[in-house]
Design goal:
The complex is a heterodimer. In chain A, 0% of the residues lie in helices and 51% in strands. Chain A is built from no helices and eleven strands. The chains are: A mainly beta, B mainly beta. At the A-B interface, strand 4, strand 5, strand 9 and strand 10 of A face strand 4, strand 9 and strand 10 of B.
Chain lengths: 112, 115
C-alpha cells in the first residue's frame, strides 16, 4: 500500500507504563506530523519533522512525550509514565511539499 | 493562539437533504484551508485544499467555498446519502514560521444521514 500506516491500531496500557507508537509515512515525503484527538476535543498538533529534524515541538504536552524520526522515514512517538489524560487517538500525517497532508488511520491509546 | 471554529457541532439529516457547514478561521497570515472527511477507524480523507480568496471547489455532490478576507469557508453536500455520515474537519495553515504545513483544526461537524 502507498498510504501512511501506523501501529498498533489499538493500545491499552496501565497508568505509569511507557508506550511507543509508530508511523510509516508515504515514501519520499519529507514532512511528517503527529496530532492527537482526545475525547470531545479537536485534533491538536504535537510535533513536526522536516527530514529527521524537528523544528517545531511546541505541541508536545509535557516532557513525558518525545518523538524521533530516522532515515527520513519511520517516526516513533514515545509516551513515558502514561497518564489517563494521555488517552486519545494519535494520528500521523506526511506531506510531499505540496499543500495536501496524508493521514494514517491512527492509534487509539487507552490508559487505564 | 489560532482559533478555528466549526458549526454546527453535529447535524442529523434525512437522505436526500442538502446541508452545509461553516468553518471560521483567522484571516491574517492565511496560507491554506483544508477540508477533511473522517470516518471512525479510518484515515481522515482530504476533500479540498483551498488557497485563493473566492475559491470554489467541487467533488461530486460536495462543494466548498472560501472567503479569506472575512475568514470563513462553507462546505455543501447536495442530496445527502447515508454513506456521507462522518465527521467533517476544517483545518487552517498559516504563512511563515518554522512549521511548514502545520494544521490547526476545528472541532469538526458530525454528520449523520438517516435513510
Amino acid at each position: 500500500g502507498a498510504g501512511v500506516s501506523q501501529s498498533p491500531s489499538n493500545k491499552v496500557t496501565e497508568k505509569g507504563k511507557d508506550v511507543e507508537l509508530r508511523c510509516d509515512p508515504i515514501s519520499g515525503h519529507t514532512a511528517l506530523y503527529w496530532y492527537r484527538q482526545r475525547l470531545g476535543q479537536g485534533l491538536e498538533f504535537l510535533i513536526y519533522f522536516q527530514g529527521n529534524s524537528a523544528p517545531d515541538k511546541s505541541g508536545l504536552p509535557s516532557d513525558r512525550f518525545s518523538a524521533e524520526r530516522t532515515g527520513e522515514s519511520v517516526s516513533t512517538l514515545t509516551i513515558q509514565r502514561t497518564q489517563q489524560e494521555d488517552s486519545a487517538v494519535y494520528l500521523c500525517a506526511s506531506n510531499s511539499g505540496h499543500n495536501e497532508q496524508f493521514f494514517g488511520p491512527g492509534t487509539r491509546l487507552t490508559v487505564l | 493562539i489560532l482559533n478555528v471554529e466549526q458549526s454546527p457541532q453535529s447535524l442529523h439529516v434525512q437522505e436526500g437533504d442538502s446541508t452545509n457547514f461553516t468553518c471560521s478561521f483567522p484571516s491574517s497570515n492565511f496560507y491554506a484551508l483544508h477540508w477533511y472527511r473522517w470516518e471512525t477507524a479510518k484515515s481522515p480523507e482530504a476533500l479540498f485544499v483551498m488557497t485563493l480568496n473566492g475559491d470554489e471547489k467541487k467533488k461530486g455532490r460536495i462543494s466548498a467555498t472560501l472567503n479569506t478576507k472575512e475568514g470563513y469557508s462553507y462546505l455543501y453536500i447536495k442530496g445527502s446519502q447515508p454513506e456521507d455520515s462522518a465527521t467533517y474537519l476544517c483545518a487552517f495553515s498559516n504563512a511563515g514560521g518554522t512549521s511548514y504545513g502545520k494544521l490547526t483544526f476545528g472541532q469538526g461537524t458530525i454528520l449523520t444521514v438517516h435513510p
